[in-house]
Amino acid sequence: MTKQLSNTIRELRFHHNEMTQQALAEAVGVSRQTIVAIEKGKYSPSLEVAFKIAQLFDKKLDDVFSYQ
């Protein structure tokens, strides 16, 4: 069984005044395309980017990302 990294970024953006992918990308220092890929589970962020995303939404890392 293959494990996969999943996330709640899209939901968090929605509840954070419907933040755009572009705004999130600028806030954490990556491209919008990177955010798109992370949200779709096509790309795993670096640990630093993962922490930045979690901090931005005032969440613990495992509230944003899970590995199942």
Automatic annotation (TrEMBL):
<keyword id="KW-0238">DNA-binding</keyword>
<protein>
    <submittedName>
        <fullName>Helix-turn-helix transcriptional regulator</fullName>
    </submittedName>
</protein>
<dbReference type="InterPro" id="IPR010982">
    <property type="entry name" value="Lambda_DNA-bd_dom_sf"/>
</dbReference>
<dbReference type="Pfam" id="PF01381">
    <property type="entry name" value="HTH_3"/>
</dbReference>
<feature type="domain" description="HTH cro/C1-type">
    <location>
        <begin position="9"/>
        <end position="64"/>
    </location>
</feature>
<dbReference type="GO" id="GO:0003677">
    <property type="term" value="F:DNA binding"/>
</dbReference>
<dbReference type="InterPro" id="IPR001387">
    <property type="entry name" value="Cro/C1-type_HTH"/>
</dbReference>
